## 1
Amino acid sequence: MKDLLPGMKTALRRSLFHHAICWRVERTDGTILTFTSHDRPLPIDDEGSPNTTRTYQPNNAFSTSALENKVNLSVSNINTFSLTSDDITERDLIGGRYDKAVVEFFAVDWLTLANGKIPLLKGFIGEVELGDLGFSAELRDISQVIQQQLLKVLSLECRADLFDTQCKVQQTPPLWAAALVIDARIPKDAQSPLDTSSPTAAANTVRPTVENGFYFEALGGVGSGGSPIQGAGITGGVEPTWPTVEGGTVVDNGITWTAIVARQLDGTITTFHDRRHFEDVTKNQAEDYWKYGLVTWLSGANVDFTMEVRDFKAGGFTLWEAMPEPLSNGDSYRVQSGCSKRFDEDCVVKYANGHNFDGEPFIPGQDSLSAYPNIK
């Protein structure tokens, strides 16, 4: 039910209603755009930001299909609308800045704005397409959210996302510091630090203060000679000389650190080919180590844009989609590793994190339905 102010109800009973349609768009980065079909700016209180009034600029930025609302919880029609405002650029659309942006449509009495709003529709921007005269986008009804799967469904792939609380793999562990309390990492469990807000909090993986392409973890266990490896304790007063070979070890005040490939590194383009392909000769990780990861640009024409990595080999990156602006030699970026959500390839081999795999990798597949006993 739409709860209208008394003044709006009175205005709707009149034979002449001074209405204007308004659109409010809030992107995931916090940017808010406001437009109206009226021929002059309209100052309207923003319910999403208390004590804030936003000016809705006259601009037919959106041309929508018919708005449809239903009284039950079924999903309303998927509306397509065009984006034609100068404030909505091709660069931002292609760069994904409007992905999942919240769009709200409502009507107002432009003659008496104190009468409040008539809510029309609220949803999320879905797929965006480029047309001859502008851009068009799907508006996904907000009621779709309550129809999503809430319970876990049997899955061969991991349901967790890399670096989340279920996965527990650390994306950016704390920098090494003196007197840092260290907990031994349990084999097959990339447990997260207990508290990274304190420089003396318990951790099991650290980064060197000068980046060298590796992280270092304290892994408890037994060495080749049967002697215990110390994976817990307190770091010393002087930072150790870190090895630069995967699997290399160094002792720090009784703690044995083991080198693992860093999961997030900064880099610079040394050779670019087009908007999807570039090379960085300093990245010598194994083939596809950065596959399914994310590249975020720190400088250049695409600064602050992020794109998923499709392939990585011998320092060469291929992105899933072209960046909105051309790449250039010298552009700096930050890349984080990715995960294919498969048990053996990534969870066990790449991250040694099989204990936290959130899936059922050993359930029989469809081929088992037609299998028969082997008489041999």
## 2
Amino acid sequence: MSITQLTAARTKAAPTVEMTPDLIQRVRQLEEYVSEMIELFDEIEPNISIVKNIADELKELESKTITVVNQFTQQIYLKEDEADEIIVLLNQEVQRVEDHIDAVSYTHLTLPTSDLVYTSVVAVYLKKQKKKDLE
């Protein structure tokens, strides 16, 4: 509502409201302030559309990211399944090798165990040497 309209509405206003010069000045200031705000909003409006475009781009990026993450997750599960199959095959092969290890007959050189045992062997010269050879 402009000042002219307020002045015209003065006659219709309640009898207790009086249009003093101070009130008219305040209304004019308010009118200027509102005009400035409208201009600022006009300047901001293109920026709001830019923000909306960025938001749309971010939503699209989010969707693509979720798709990529889901694909990698599927690949990880597939590789995990392949690794589990390899472990099963390796365990079966180890069991097959363990089942086919032949037992060695018991002699004085063997120890009574079913585990593999490593022994050291030392070569010793058993023929007696003459004292002359030693000196």
## 3
Amino acid sequence: MASKGVISKVSLDGASQLIAELERLPKNVKRRVLGKMVRAGGTVSLNKVRSNAPKGKTGLFKRSLDKNQKTYGSGAVVSMIGQQKRKKFSDKTRDRARGKKGGGISGKGFAPPIHLVNSATKSHRILGAKRGLIRRLFQLAWNRRNVARNKPIAFRVAGKRKPIFRQWANHPGTKGYGFMQTAAAAIGDSKRAMISKGSAELKIELASIARKGTARK
């Protein structure tokens, strides 16, 4: 399980018999079983991550968390847990807001980047979006005075209808929720899920091999 530096490795200690049986399987069968084992463990880890992650006002952040699995040529299988691609997830929320079905997404809003929610951030200054060069030159020529490089930021104040505009704002920083680290510490549940799935799939594959051998005879 990995996301922004949080890495957790599962060691299948106590499952020596299962590992020995897997090593005797044909390469393609072994890879298939390993893939299902890692997928089962990754699902448990993903559920742990989602349960510890903050819901927020819209719940979109939790929904943006997902897992991806990759199999390498060496036979290694890796499960990666993190956030869906920003544009892909934004398109889903936009489509749902327009009444389209699909994606398991509901609600409007914005899902913040995972590293800003999980990890602590230092106090920093927030600037508005940069103005276009042509617009800045036009304003300089028209007003004949200095023009700010950044657009003003709008702030909503409780009790006031109109927003307040400022060129910048000081952010105090955040402590971070550390939900990825919390999920990584409970890796034992993922290990048990992997062993259970591996044992079940091994029985299925061995039975299938036995049937094929009998049919050939």
## 4
Amino acid sequence: MNYCVHSIMYGYYAFRALQVSVPRPIAMVVTSLQIVQMVFGFYVSSYAFAVKLTGGYCDIPMKTATFGFLVYVTFFCLFANLFIDNYGLRKLLVGGGRNKGGGGKEEVVGKCVNGNGVEKTTMRNADGEESKSTTTTTTSTTTKKDL
């Protein structure tokens, strides 16, 4: 299961690194698969932990079962929080829901200016959709000679 999830995840990251636009549902599936993997790992670790506590036979050492239990719970919480934050569920859970008008407030999620004065800005709207814009700025410098 780990190999399968990581193969999909690294494929997704490769496309994003190449600045290929990946549909939002694909990103949601990747995060969902990671959450399912954590639930499965939590189950296996919990089962091994319970078997060890009751004196049953299990090849997994108690330290490994305990550590696995803690790691999977921690990662589950992190991925669940990522899912809630990235896919607009925080507003639904806290109250307010989505803006019925379809638009709404945009936030800047990335901005950089290169040496040629070209500014690239990435915005995210209330629905979590990203848009990019490029602005060319001109700067003038004043020297003593110009005064």
